[in-house]
Queue: 3 jobs
Job 1
Amino acid sequence: MFPRPIEKSGTVAKTAYQAFLPVALFIWLLPLLAIFVTSIRGAKDINAGNIFGWPSEFALFENYSAVFTQSAAAQYMLNSVMITVPTVLISVSLACLAGYALAIYRFRVAVPLFFLFVAGHFIPFQILLLPVRDMSVQTGLYDTIAGQFLFHAAFQTGFCTLFMRNFIKALPFDLIESARIEGVAEWRIFWFVVLPLVRPAIAALAVLIFTFVWNDFFWANVLTQGESAKPITAGVRSLNGQFVNNWHLVSAASLMAAIPPVVMFFLMQKHFIAGLTLGAVK
Amino acid sequence: MSTTAVPDTHPPKPQGWLARNKLSVAPWIFLAPALVFFAIYVVWPIFESIWLSFYEWNGLYAADGSSTATWVGFGNYVKLWDDPNFWTSLKNNVLWLVLYMLAVPAGLFIALFLNQTVTGMRFYKSMFFFPFVISQVVVGLIFGWFYNPDFGVIGSVWKALFCEETTNILGNVTFRCSRSAPDILSSPEYATYGIIFAGLWPQVAYCMILYLTGLNNVAADQIEAARLDGAKGWKMLWYVVLPQLKPATFIAVVVTVIGALRSFDMIAIMTQGGPFGSTNVLAYYMYEVAISEYGERYGYGSAVATVLFLIMLVYISYFLWRMYQDERGRR
């Protein structure tokens, strides 16, 4: 293990290390803590410039309910859920199928097609912006929930396929071979042999895509106009305009936007990190 | 086994074309949905954007449904060449690329710091990773507030350091400052640095988690062997540990480059490209010329997007080439 375990450097070093950890964490998360404390302050503190001090009054409930009653935040949150969940379902399902095809079958264009999905995942959004927006306007999908999740699903299919293909490729090929010799139909091999084995990959992709799409801001801006289809990230921005200098409300709204992915992360931490660090180890 | 296999004397059942070719047909059936979807929303638009960059178009259609675009050839690119905003954006993109790379060593540093097994370590690791999970919009808002000279943290620190608090007879508090607090995001000189610094926060967390996973998989016997040979500290890190962390470093560099070139959210939230276009990057400038309130210039915007795409293509090609080497190595 590197660096050398701190226990081996004696009790003093270990105690010092353990004492320093919370300090380091405090500094690291200072921006977040500051905004949290701000979100539970009353307006009086904000105006008086009391930023570091102990809040003179606690307005946790008032602030967070003000965000909901004075703005369309509830609508935005709901929209985010309705965009994110179908995206995850569609892109992960498509990627299971495509990943299976690219990993199991040997055909000439398998590798080029795989690279197409990989490359598609890395391209800048801007090169897609105008055609996708124009297409959405033409088909009536502009400023709708469906218009957003269809695009996200298609785009995320690239990353999901990359992930799935590599995951399935790492499975023992004998399993599929012997099923074929038994005369099992191809789709049954997919459904009964491979799908149960890729469950961890499905879990990892689900949390990752959930987080990516929930946190998307660019497409929310490009593909929506009014409040009816806007997700919370774009919503927070317009709240920022609405609550100018009411930092306690802006902070409360921002933290609320951050809660779902954070909860998701803490619930599925293992899968999340496994998904994110794929390729970081050989 | 006591029974001997009897050769199958029945003539094979006549099979249809589909059954005979199932191994070459099946992959296409599995691939079709993803491929069609991906082609419509990702592959085709790339070509359409490049095509559009040779036109001048405001995005409108004539009454009969035909587009009102006019062909200008390389006209948009010629205009780009003379556009100071384009060069500012490009310069800022380079700045992002260079400074964003700090996330890689910083992530490694924190990972080394946290790679211990004292109690509660799991909690600390996930808390350090926290900033990455939050939306960049929220990070942008947090730092926007952080930098605010009147209400923000920087402002308060400044007051504490350089200002004298005086209370007049009526009880009103006024501050007299030897130097006025810096308004980072309103200064053309420092605003980009301010945004990049904010952007580094989640990116360092990302690199950290990559390295933590990498460190978990470093071969313990090699470390021990090197220790017996007297290697420690920097030498150990440089000659023994880092070579083993190569895959993690590679991924960290790739995601950091992509992140730097994709920087849009933070700029949109914190400065909207301002002041005076000084914090623009290609990703934001494209959006600005193409669909913001300043007028819809689809062709010009597409030209900016194409330039950004070509820059990214360099990295994508390199990444794919590396992947191709790995693929060949595996066979």
Note: The mean pLDDT of chain A is 88.
Job 2
Amino acid sequence: MPWLSEVRNGHDHFSERMTRPHNLSDLLLDRSQRDPSSLALVDADTRLTYGEVATMVGRLSTQIRHEGVRPGDRVAVFAPKSTNTFVAMHAALHAGAIAVPINAMTPADAVERLARDLNPRAVVLTADTAERWPLDVSSLTIGSPVDGHRLLDWTCLESGDVDGPANRLGSDPAYLISTSGSTGVPKSIVHTHSSGLRYAELAAECYDLGPDDRMASVAPFHFDQSTFELYSSMVAGAAVVLISEILLRFPASVSGLLEREAVTTWYSVPTILRQLLERGAIEERDLSALRWVLFGGEVFPPAQLRRLMEMLPSARFSNVYGPAEVNQCMFHHLETPPDDEANIPIGRPWADTDLRIVDREGSALSGACRGELHVRSSTTMAGYWNRPDVNRSVFDERQEVGGLTSRWYRTGDLVERDVDGVMYFLGRVDRQVKVRGVRIELEAVEMALGALDGITGSAAYLDPLADNTLVGVVESDATIAESDILISLANVLVNESIPSRVVVVPRLPRTTSGKVDVNRAAALVTASIDADTTTPGAPGPKASDQVSPT
Amino acid sequence: MRTDRLDELEHALIEMIQVEVTAGKPVEAHTDLLLTGLVSSISVVRIVTWLEEHLDIEIDPVDVVLENFQTVALMIDYARRR
């Protein structure tokens, strides 16, 4: 039986497959044997076929194994997205190592902590990131030299032997994804060959990927959305069009690339789609090849989503939900553009996934309800790297028949299920706060602020320095009066959910994945209060000296 | 646009970028602002707004592309064509 039996466009993509892939590195090998000349990877100045990519991956994998990389060793990729780093991610898997993509913008002290925790055997660097890599960690660098390390430069991709892939089981670790660390210390999520492969297969099926697809690679490799392009592409034999971090700063350049390469799928956070809408000149481009736009990771304000959907009528839009710990677990396809006030669902569970909604006492709820979401699925992580303490608490082990147990991941996300079984994201359990005794969700306040005219981002938090009053921060290029914002909010929020004050800033701090960084936004407001209350040049008062805003 | 006016504009633009965008890191006309990671997407918007104000023009979003904004010299070239 074919492992994906879907027949599309009158032919079966998978009919030639003899066996199903057992691990993530089988995907590229299998595809390169069957369709060696089909296009696999497109960069600004490079076009590579599946055969070429497989050869480059095989060469790098063979070289790093000659240099001592063994199954289970970590291979870090501390470099921006490029064809070479794409090859390195796959070569790590081929060698049986654990691929560890690291945000190339990470400052030196954070990289050092991560490097010591992971202790990689080899690391991919650029001249820029090499300056921030701790000298005594790992013995082999790829791409850029570091004193005292053996170096493989990228010419190693141009010639050399190719050994077969290392033997890895589905249950062996394949890659690590760092959590954003928006709450506390970042943790590294361990995905296995099996959880990664199952995600790749389910996503290829859910979004109907085929060999004719050209998938925009928008997310950097350290962000889990990128696994859609890294691995699902190879399930389907689709081509990946790399969009560099530099190009993303120019939405009109991005839209030009989408037109030129006839890109068919896109997956990103809403923030990047909003930049494309505002500054991407998309009305001047022919984007009729774009057939599916996936967004996830944060809430898309419905008014902007509607405008974007109206400008891209050939594309289907889907809201994708799933913490990086479980890859995806729900989706909602939008059949029509939403109303301005619409609450866009996160939808229903996809295949091979079981969901429960539990109350504060941990009891499962049925029917229409709200509570914390717990997930059990074939795409769930093995656990967090080097964190046995957290792994014990983050999974809920439940007794099943025959003395067996099932393992549920506690997402920490608060959701609501309606009578039809459709789910809505309400916020983080730990971002549910009490204001004057009333329970509110900070995300609901952010959503209301973000939906106002002229506002391109929002954050809300309780200010511990001002009696835990609710503070809103909004991003806008325009001059907007705080009083106007508060009046508009009064129409959509209950009294307790209306911030005591709203600060307008030209730019909100964001994480590398484009989400608003609430902690840094709060620090920005505190710093601006300091600046307002002191003479220029004088040191600001300590936080504890601060006067509560009224 | 006259050449001396363009030189003046180039100096002012470099000064603004050094103060507001690169936090004091020196910039020259041909410094690649993007490869060195000096300029974020936010700063691109700031630079566009600055050019619009100083030249009293409206910059079409379709012109805000890598080819026109990679260096100060390219920005000035773009301004000359306008």
Note: The CA atoms of residues 18 and 67 of chain B lie 21 Å apart.
Job 3
Amino acid sequence: MANVLFTNVRVLDGTGEQPFLGEVQVQGNRIARVARGSRAMHGSGLTVIDGAGATLMPGMCEAHTHFSWNDQPSLGSIQKMPVEEHVLWCRHIAERYLRRGFTSCVGAATAKPRLDVVIRNAIEQGLIPGPRYLAASQEITVAGGLADETLPHLPFEELNFGAVISGPEEMRKCVRMFLKYGVDTIKLNLSGEYITGLPAEFTPMTDAEVATAVAEAKLRNKRVSAHARSCESIKQCVRHGIEIIYHASYADEEALDMLEARKDRHFVAPGIAWLIHTSHHAGEYGITPEIAKGMGYHRELEMACETLQKMRRRGIRILPGGDYGFAWIKHGTNAKDLEYFVKYLGFTPMQALISATKLGGEIMMRPNDLGCVKEGYLADLLLVDGDPVANISVLQDEKRLLAVMKDGEFHVAPDVQAGRGRLAVNAA
Amino acid sequence: MANVLFTNVRVLDGTGAQPYTGDVQVQGNRILRVSRSSSSATGGATVIDGAGATLMPGLCEAHTHFAWNNAANFDDIQRMPTEEHVLWCAHVAKEYLDHGWTSCVGAATAKPRLDVVTRNAINEGLIKGPRYLAASQEITVHGSLGDETLPHIPYPEYSFGAIVSGPEEMRKCVRMFLKYGVDSIKLNLSGDNFVPFAPAETTWMSDEEVAIAVKEAKIRGKRVSVHARSCESVKQALRHGAEVIYHASFTDSEALDMLEANKDKIFVAPGLSVILKLLYEGEVIGVSQAKAKDMGYERELEAAVNSLSAMHKRGVRVLPGGDYGFSWAPHGTNAMDLQYFVKYLGFTPMQALVSATALGGQIMMKPNELGLIKEGYLADLLLVDGDPVSNLGVLLEKDKLLAIMKDGVFHKEPQMRSGRSSRWTLNAA
């Protein structure tokens, strides 16, 4: 692990403070010191990286990640990938997230039972590079719900990217299986999804099933997340204590009140890019804006923008990320979400940055040592060529990420070869 | 891809010729030019001054099991779930390349698709690894090596082999592996002293089963390799036209004559490490020398030394590599085989190097373009700090491999940053 001193950097600390010129020292896997101004610290014994005015900020967190979605235009092609290739795909994608500045990801569901768990374990063992990762179960759904992809003449469960259950006892067994495998989160599909022909407003899982799932997860101190687009499914999340709510497009005033009352418990990760791109940028793959409109996506996008703006005003934690990994919304382009938060949801760039960093530490269950550039915090850092506050889209450009550090180690080391580039390195 | 000129290197070209000082230029994925005098770079090549290091062809491991997981038994191989096993294979594939093995011949995998998937991922550039020929699982019969089921656990997933009974089951099994895309079908013809229920000198598979396996493989233009320790299994392999014979410990004069008669068609990769390690260093894993002798390893070593030395004298192609991936011989230590060839089988160091390079190109089915430093050959090259001819041990040390190139691309680049003190200098010509 590095002992590194970043000098001459603009520190964007993730708390909402305006960036300041300063120095940051990393020792082992933690931030040892943060100081304002220059020449505040001695570089002796450290690798000194002169940032030449670049921005040093916390690594970003993707709050709704599916490593196993395979950048294809259909759900069917996720299922047609055999398990061996799928493992290598997830391995490949995990590295891409890290390289693109996402040092933390919250697994939102995996496509085969153990993919997420195995990838998380391999990252933690140092066998493969990747972000900090919370591993999810498959999407647990009911027969006929989102993620049930079987056909009448092909009733084989391996054709599903979800795990299909019916009734509380099947739910219990299913949840216990995923807990045995070692997931951090149980994912439930509480609402529908237009692209599969099931309206977003559809809420097919019974309270008894949801209650059993949550009870079993809590017994093992694990978390539950939910695909919840419909108003009723959002309320189901609050009633049952499902901490992570994905999408939340159709919340009514009652749902908003319920959420606001428990806003310290819940996180909302809307995956807004999915709605935007499916509505307007998927024509190349056969989903023209007219078709998307016919499915219901234009209406949902409009509703979601309205609903999420209300949530933001009520102080409900909304985080970027979500459902990247389709042909029209590929893995690695996730920093688009920050731009969309500004454009569509009324966030200031600084608010979008906080939601990707400080709130990221909170959803990663490390509110006191992850997500900020602060003394004692874990050294997950990005060195960015540019000012994300002035131009949030710089984070989408891999070339602008001069360095990516996770847990005190460079994944992308600053290019500091003598005589090249704007950065200078001095071994003091 | 590289456009690289290695200057001031000792060229060990893999043909058996004595090393000479010269220059080697690589363009794209091929060796463009080899010269005995210093030459000037053409076409903007990056010049690497080797400062007298040895430039040699990448090594070929003729008997590789990526899926063996460095454990002391078979059980740990079977208990690794598929997902972890895929990541393991990806990890090990890179390990081979890191150690200078730019080609490996898959000798069997532990779950149906591991080898095929790993080979495909290497070819697609998704993961790092050597050129690879993917194998099937070991196809075996009930009760022989590879059948790990227990009476109360009769599930095929519990075995690292695929178990068949009769020619028609064999046909189906071979076709399944061919469908998956293997380059070779592996048959377990003999037993193995590691498993007491099927010792090395026993022969298990019927001629009808072997015949149908070979026939199905040849229909699709694929190769058959065999686990053949017993004398009868070696003959069976030769009778049926299996091209790659693993082990071949026990032979008689008839078997040796048959081997010699087929020497242009077949390859033998003995994989001596299991025998030697268990016999001489087994204590560390709880196998005393008395136990190893009891298992039959002393007898097998004596037979193998005689058989393989005789094959070598008769001009049969004997290649290094084999059965690394156990706790006593972990992946990456495979270059020990070259020393074993010298110590036990009467090879000169140069002959051992030829078998790891020139013969490697032949077993990889690229006899005219792989395994030598020769104009037009594929640029699989090692830059070695030292002289392997006088000390084969240098090939065991990762740090002595100053550069590793596969298909014209550096897997390991020579360190030659400007401004730092090192023996390397970099000049863009």
Note: The interface with chain B takes residues 82-85, 87-88, 91-92, 114-115, 118, 121-122, 127-128, 417-419 of chain A (CB under 8 Å).
